[in-house]
Design goal:
Shape: globular
Order of helices and strands: HHEEHEEHEEHHEEHEEHHH
CATH class: Alpha Beta
Number of strands: 10
Largest sheet: 4 strands, antiparallel
Number of helices: 10
Helix content: 40-55%
Number of domains: 1
Strand order of the largest sheet: 1-2-4-3
CATH topology: Endonuclease I-creI
Oligomer: single chain
């Protein structure tokens, strides 16, 4: 996908503050984070995104949206085994801004990102799709295709809270799976399980906003077809 195509994606949308907030919350539930600067002259928060170079189109898609609030600084870093960076990455840092600070104060409790009613009330359909694009994976069976959301960083209670709100806000049915890690010092964590119908709904949303393809979630042709069938721009179809 060409940079000009990515830049024009949001031209047809009126980027209101609630729309922007709902999308940014989805990014924060996924790979994004907010960081409070240590600059004494500006103690506001900024937003940081990091993606593999292989996800460049998707990365630029998100940065184009973030530019609606502030300018951004984008850097590319090479693979570096000394710090366990196995592949080149792209990093985006926004400018520090009071709006990000207010969001930080609602999402971060004692420095930890937390899911609460504010988050789920303001999450919109674009934010939901971005969250899945960040954290979702496909699980392929012979007759169906399902998905999982990496919600490991959230507690059991938070996962059940998310489940309730996804049904309430978006009429999405999800389950919760339990995993154990580190056999010597067992730790339990939780992920969301997404049946095929839920996956298809999310892929339709992704197509409606022309979110670029990310290989890790398109390993099944059935979902890829759902995505393509719901794209309205022929240039976007030819580029995926």
């Amino acid at each position: 996908m060409s940079p000009s195509t990515i830049m024009s994606i949001f031209d047809g949308y009126r980027i209101t503050r609630p729309f922007f907030k709902g999308a940014v919350i989805g990014m924060l539930l996924g790979n994004g984070c907010l960081y409070k600067t240590k600059d004494k002259k500006n103690q506001n928060a900024c937003m940081i995104l990091v993606h593999s170079i292989r996800q460049k189109d998707y990365f630029l898609y998100k940065t184009e949206l973030l530019k609606k609030l502030t300018s951004v600084n984008i850097k590319e870093f090479p693979a570096d085994e000394s710090i366990k960076r196995k592949y080149p990455i792209l990093r985006c840092d926004t400018k520090a801004h009071p709006w990000y600070t207010s969001l930080y104060n609602r999402l971060y409790i004692n420095g930890r990102k937390e899911v609460n009613s504010f988050v789920m009330k303001h999450l919109n359909d674009l934010g939901l799709a971005l969250w899945f694009w960040d954290s979702g994976i496909t699980v392929i069976n012979k007759s169906t295709v399902q998905g999982k959301m990496r919600t490991d960083s959230f507690s059991e209670a938070e996962n059940y809270f998310i489940k309730t709100w996804l049904k309430k806000r978006f009429d999405l049915d999800v389950g919760i799976t339990k995993h154990m890690v580190n056999k010597s010092r067992p730790k339990r964590y939780y992920r969301l399980y997404l049946p095929q119908k839920t996956m298809e709904k999310i892929f339709k949303i992704g197509a409606s906003y022309k979110i670029p393809v990310v290989n890790k979630i398109y390993s099944d042709e059935r979902l890829f077809q759902v995505y393509k069938n719901n794209l309205k721009d022929e240039d976007m179809i030819s580029s995926v």
